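Progress against Task 2.4 (sequence-to-structure conversion) is shown through the following example record, which the project officer requested during the mid-term review.
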Amino acid sequence: MRILIIKPSSFGDIIHAFAAISDLKKNNPAFEVDWYVDEQYKDIPRWNRYVDGVFSINRKRFRKLNKLFFGLAAHRLIKKLKRRQYDVVVDLYFGFQDASLLSRLGVPVIGPSLVALSEMVQDKRLSNIYSRDIALDVSKTLVDVHRQLLSKAFGYSYSSLTVDYGVEHASICNQRQPDELAPYLIFVHTTSGKVKNWPEPYWQSLLKIASQNGYQVLLPWGDENEKKRAQRVAAEYPEKARVLDKMPLGDLACLIATSKGVVGGDTGLTHISSALGVPTIRLFGATSAQAAIPAANGIDISSDLECAPCMNRNDCVREDIEEFSVFPPCYEKLTPGLVWEKFLQLKGADSE
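Structure tokens generated for the chain above:
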């Protein structure tokens, strides 16, 4: 059987789907599994050793030009995919435009039931695309929702106590050779939403603690604003902190794989770190750890503020913000001292 998976974005969400693909191939080794993904993330599905093929399109460009469905690139993609002669398409993204596009392959499309959709994305149009819909317990993590969907669609069981993301050091690093010699940590200091970001002064304090304990700290960034933030964090300890050059995700993932640990918020880099089993501290304020990849070798620290998690990624609506010592206020009690204490606890367990 040949299957096409719909999961075009984002970085973290693609990683969340890895365990389901691993389950599928372990239970059905003869199946061929291909992945439809946005062009900017086309290298990521290849990190999973169970993925056979990857097909991509620049979704942002063609949406902007209103050509996702009818443009030449979409036509070429469908033509190429039809040559693969898929038996079924499985939607793990739950987005109407992508499911509509790939329904043009003329094969059954499997997705969540209408009840599950209404609880997750509230786009009832998808139920008109699916040839078969699957009842899901959406109170579980997104990782588990994906595992449920594939296991029910193809008739096998899985244990929620064991998770294989199909990612190995070798598949991430390939021919890459990190040039870091000293023991180093990676601080993932930014996320996609400003309310998800741990306070900048806290990063500076944690950097001081890490440097005093003999660690080099690497600071990645994605755009100019994130680069400036990294430079501010590193400014007081330039001999122990290094703002990385702009690099492909694969190179950055290799640095993560060979690091001594990762600290960061709810974002794709900390999720790949968790999937690799790298000691990882993840910080959750506005968002919930419930939706994230279960950390195989990590500790999640969540805010206990009464409004958390508010699931608001871009702004805090509290009227008493000025009464808190940091922004976002949900991180006030998640201090650098607490984070370092948890990191030492994690490293102690890792060395046993």
